[in-house]
Design goal:
Helix content: 25-40%
Distance between the termini: 58 Å
Number of helices: 13
Order of helices and strands: HEHEHHEHHEEHEHEHEEHEEHHEEEHEEE
Bound molecules: S-adenosylmethionine
Strand order of the largest sheet: 5-4-3-2-6-7-11-8
Number of domains: 2
Number of strands: 17
């Protein structure tokens, strides 16, 4: 295999991360707590999925009746198109079915649908009532076939391939759907994603923002021992079918309402923070309090819980603020990466290197920067620039 192909295969294999029931249940419950009828009468598409192993299909099929769903559609990706599916063998679900076709099984994607029809005749509608057929194509979410299903659906829910996250979000954006998808929390900084967050068209989910998510992976997937051990401690020991790992930076991205984003952050005034906020007082920068940036009209707030309740201007806060962001309380002005700062001055850059720091900066560098109380030049990590909604200027 050429190096390039090997790289692509490795990347694709990292797409085989299977979501656990408890994570799906926690997030869906948050939507239901906010609106008990959120799924009622809805057609839900689960792309990049496969009911034989997907907890998304199993969970939503189990709740088909009590959530009041109209239709559940799940599509899977053809093994031959999927560099990550070298381990693939068709399951009895497929091979036992008269529609099974050895050639198509490898070449084609499959579509599974559940409607309020008790196909199995057992008196209820659940996963046993799923109907399936081969797709014409390979089930790529970008195909016309799956895109038409997106357009039919009210909601799209899945954990999309990690390597295609940006493309997947653009595909969602091109359809007029509600969605809930798992991604990497770093994605908020992407040029394609951040504007959506700023415009309040996408937000972080209600759960898993500060806790690990466990994922099943195909047997043989190279795992770090520490991750495997942690997943095991979290209640997921290896099984005959799967090994388990954990990711600390996975989260949900959604445009479905939930209550967490309407809870206001409880904040102290600037004066009280300076007196009582231990983190701020003992902080990295020697209890700097709130410094003004040297190259942008805003103040540095190094901790989300140190956001002052009474500051009227723009504040730079850590990106983890977005886990607690309440759009009724704050407006997102920008991400420091995209903000039009004045650039770092020559004086700042000189002082920075004179202080023995070794980051890669030069005059005009657009990152935010400030001087600590002790006069030390500081270049903080990426900041979200926010402003209170109830300020006189807003
Ligand atoms: C992160 S896994 C998640 C699987 C499942 N949705 C879950 O959460 O357990 C993403 C899945 O998308 C599949 N996939 C990769 N590229 C795809 C594509 N272009 N179109 C559709 N599915 C794709 C992968 O094979 C993989 O099974």
């Amino acid at each position: 295999m050429a190096n390039k192909d090997l790289g692509a295969a490795k990347k694709a294999k990292q797409d085989e991360f299977y979501t656990q029931w408890a994570d799906i249940e926690r997030e869906m419950n948050a939507y239901l707590e906010y609106d008990a009828n959120v799924f009622r009468g809805k057609t839900i598409l689960l792309p990049c999925d496969d009911p034989e192993w997907s907890n998304f299909t199993k969970f939503l099929a189990l709740h088909f009746a009590d959530f009041g769903l109209k239709k559940l559609i799940s599509t899977s990706y053809a093994p031959n198109s999927n560099a990550g599916a070298a381990f693939y063998t068709p399951t009895l679900f497929e091979t036992d079915d008269p529609a099974y076709d050895e050639g198509k099984s490898l070449e084609r994607g499959r579509v599974f649908t559940l409607t309020p029809e008790d196909v199995s005749g057992d008196g209820r509608v659940d996963i046993d009532d799923l109907k399936w057929e081969y797709l014409d194509g390979d089930g790529d979410f970008r195909s016309a076939e799956v895109t038409a299903m997106r357009d039919e659906a009210d909601m799209v829910i899945t954990n999309p391939p990690f390597s295609l996250f940006r493309t997947f979000m653009a595909w969602l954006g091109a359809g007029d759907v509600r969605f809930s998808v798992i991604g990497n929390s770093n994605a908020i900084t992407y040029s394609q994603i951040f504007p959506l967050i700023k415009e309040n068209r996408v937000w972080k989910g209600a759960t898993a923002n500060t806790t690990d998510m466990v994922f099943g992976v195909p047997k043989g997937f190279p795992l770090k021992d520490a991750d495997r051990a942690k997943a095991e401690r979290m209640g997921y020991p290896s099984t005959a079918e799967y090994d388990f790992t954990r990711l600390g930076n996975s989260c949900w991205f959604t445009n479905i309402e939930h209550g967490r984003r309407h809870e206001p952050l409880q904040l102290m005034t600037m004066a009280d923070n300076l007196r009582f906020n231990k983190k701020l007082i003992k902080g990295l920068d020697g209890g700097d309090g709130y410094q003004r940036y040297d190259n942008f009209d805003a103040i540095e707030v190094p901790y989300t819980d140190a956001i002052p309740s009474d500051f009227d201007g723009v504040m730079g806060v850590p990106i983890t603020f977005l886990d607690k962001f309440n759009p009724d309380q704050f407006e997102i002005v920008d991400l420091s990466r995209y903000a039009k700062t004045q650039g770092m001055s020559k004086e700042f850059v000189d002082a920075y290197y004179a202080s023995g720091q070794t980051g890669q900066i030069s005059e005009g560098h657009p990152d935010l920067c400030y001087y600590s109380n002790a006069g030390r030049p500081v270049v903080p990590y990426m900041r979200v620039l926010i402003r209170r909604r109830d300020t006189p200027s807003s």
